Amino acid sequence: MEQIKTFLIIDLETTGLPHKEYNRTKITEMCLLAASRKDIRNAAFGELPPICKLSFMLNPEKTITPDSARITGITNEHVKYAPTFKEKFHTVNSFIKDLKKPVCFVAHNGNTFDYRILLAECADAKVMLPDDLLCVDSLAIFRKISKAKNNKSSDSVDKPMNTDKSMNSTFLSDIMTDDEDAWPEMNVTPENFQEIDELCSSFYNLSPSQNMPRKKVNKSITKVKSSGKLRESFKLTEIYTRYFGGTEGKTAHRAEDDCLMLLQCMVAAQSKETSDDFLLLCDQNCKLLLDCKPLERKTNLEAKRYNKNPLH
């Protein structure tokens, strides 16, 4: 397969979380950051490559949940006169078509959140993105990087960040694998949605520093408890911390902030300082966006049935 030429980082802010909205979640803000493979490869550790950017708010034509409004700062009043997704689609499509092919979307937890919601919006609007558009989930890529580091640690004990024997586990361990989008085709329970959306909602308190650090900072692996065991966290903020140091005091959560943070981590994950190769792993693990399954909107009847087993 031909190497990816353009990496298109995408992040969405939404009206809420799918399990709380019966899969009727809509986009309120979208950011696209495009960077060429060459520019990412040539960027120094702690630097950002030149980018092309498209960022805008959308009118979701539905009420934004109070939790989402509180976390993102975006209310229905802010998007009252914003275009709808259907009205803005031509701009998005033109932006993508102008990029050097092959083009690959990169989103953190994209397989189970961003791509499914984006495709659902396209289905609602009866529009289609380019059929050759690729996508990859950065969460899965960072898991692969950590798994490789963990394997190497058996031969070397003097390398930092390589000591955790459970580095290949995340909050999505029962739902998503390293190698594919394993969102269940059937029987997605409220608890499944809860687990996925807790990870998605954890992104809400992220924002990259205005002054990006230029020096690598070695940090101990951040872990979370799951089933009585310590597991490495793959929240975007934790990945950023492992590469660059603390993210204390960063409370704003906007689509552009998250895209910049992810791009910063991508640069770090293919630099000489880390000996990782994020871009090569993207080549090996990308798939067509159209192979992703759109979020399935629930009908009123299905919503009532779903509500019989409430989460809260």
Automatic annotation (TrEMBL):
<dbReference type="InterPro" id="IPR013520">
    <property type="entry name" value="Ribonucl_H"/>
</dbReference>
<dbReference type="GO" id="GO:0008296">
    <property type="term" value="F:3'-5'-DNA exonuclease activity"/>
</dbReference>
<keyword id="KW-0269">Exonuclease</keyword>
<dbReference type="InterPro" id="IPR012337">
    <property type="entry name" value="RNaseH-like_sf"/>
</dbReference>
<feature type="domain" description="Exonuclease">
    <location>
        <begin position="6"/>
        <end position="275"/>
    </location>
</feature>
<keyword id="KW-0540">Nuclease</keyword>
<dbReference type="GO" id="GO:0003676">
    <property type="term" value="F:nucleic acid binding"/>
</dbReference>
<dbReference type="GO" id="GO:0005737">
    <property type="term" value="C:cytoplasm"/>
</dbReference>
<comment type="similarity">
    <text>Belongs to the exonuclease superfamily. TREX family.</text>
</comment>
<keyword id="KW-0460">Magnesium</keyword>
<dbReference type="InterPro" id="IPR036397">
    <property type="entry name" value="RNaseH_sf"/>
</dbReference>
<dbReference type="Pfam" id="PF00929">
    <property type="entry name" value="RNase_T"/>
</dbReference>
<keyword id="KW-0479">Metal-binding</keyword>
<dbReference type="GO" id="GO:0046872">
    <property type="term" value="F:metal ion binding"/>
</dbReference>
<protein>
    <submittedName>
        <fullName>Putative three prime repair exonuclease 1</fullName>
    </submittedName>
</protein>
<dbReference type="GO" id="GO:0006308">
    <property type="term" value="P:DNA catabolic process"/>
</dbReference>
<dbReference type="InterPro" id="IPR040393">
    <property type="entry name" value="TREX1/2"/>
</dbReference>
<keyword id="KW-0378">Hydrolase</keyword>
